[in-house]
Write a structure and sequence with these properties.
186 residues; 4-stranded antiparallel β-sheet; 8 strands
Length: 186
Amino acid sequence: MQEKQDRRRNKDREEESPITERTVRINRVSKVVKGGRHLSFSALVVVGDGEGRVGIGMGKASAVPDAITKGSAYAQKNMVNIPLKGDTIAHDVSAKFGGSMVMLKPAPPGTGVIAGESVRAVVELVGVKDIVTKVRRSTNPTNVVKATLKGLQMLRDPEVEISRRREYAQRTALAKNEALSQDPSD
């Protein structure tokens, strides 16, 4: 009876949670053993809240639903924040993971998500509405998803970056002036 109540509570939490999950790839793995073949499944799952948080996870199990559940749990544990600029990204970025290379470019409002299936899963769950992407070299979904996440993590908020660089320039100029004023060669 207690288990039923726990399941109901978990179901209620899942419905309240703004996190969306999308399964990108399910791979059947066959291992030959003494008695025949042993089948297992791996699932690549992307989760996101549509407001700048996204995570990816790989789950492996002997049944597909269990693999998806494991992948989803791992992805939720490893969610990262991505800086967005309205409904798009702030600047161009290219990222490489394994044999895959992904290019992400901001687009004007109304463009939509121009991307392949794997990249689309990540950028839509992050909350990007207008973006142009291109996958070069390998199109292996696992590497493409990881390269996309790596590219999104390389994004910087322009205002924060400008203020950080100004502070650095001021500190170095101040240090240089102090060094010149203390120079004993006068």
